[in-house]
Amino acid sequence: MNRIVQLFIGVILLLVLATIVRHFTAESDAASNHHHAHHSLQDEQLIAIGKGLSIAEPKAKATIPGTKVSAGYLSLVNQSDSDIVFVAARSDGATHTELHHMVMENSRMSMRQVESITVPAHGQFDLTPGGYHIMFMDIATPFVAGQTVVVELIDDAQNVYPVELPVLDMSNNHTHAH
Predict the structure, then answer these.
(1) Which residue spans adopt a coiled-coil conformation according to this UniProt entry (predicted)?
(2) What is the model's pLDDT at position 53?
(3) What pLDDT, on the 0 to 100 scale, is given for residue 175?
């Protein structure tokens, strides 16, 4: 009987993991999203968040009922003469907030925490579904469409950049704010 219970728990855990992975890859155009911009952002789309750093298209996924994870996406635009290296993220909305990357491993998508992301001088770095993103784990209160989640991005000099992410219902491939 104990073996049946273990098997049942194992199947449930696999189903939960599959649901979470599907949630984070549903909007992905391709498994090999490149992290640099494929489009140029207009100045009116940019939101300044610190000296020489702006963002565009910020958003966080509304949580799926029964889950305690979500992801945040945005474009980081560095107008300064130096690279900006982000080494951490934190948010009051989640117990754990990390910088992550989706990668293909053995024909399967896998999420990995990364030590840092570099926004090149006079360049751009995109956090996108299926690529690099901000991962929110152990969320206390569900992220609901229409709300805003505040996340702080921390660079290697310990500068803190607060970012407001509007929460969007990104199910059914609705990945862009309208």
Answers:
(1) none
(2) 96
(3) 44
**Residue 110 bridge partners (DSSP):** 103
What is the span of the domain harbouring residue 40?
2-173
Nearest one of 40, 57, 59, 55 to 86, comparing CA atoms:
55
Q: d(Cα 12, Cα 25) in Å, to the nearest integer?
A: 20
CATH number reported for the structural domain that contains residue 105 in this entry:
2.60.40.1890
Count of domains for the chain? 1
User: Using CA atoms, how far apart are residues 71 and 54, in angstroms rounded to an integer?
Assistant: 20
Contact 76, 166 (CB under 8 A): no
The DSSP bridge partners found for residue 86 are: 117, 155
Tell me, yes or no, whether 178 lies in a domain.
no
pLDDT tens digit string along 103-137?
888 888 888 999 999 999 999 999 999 999 999 99
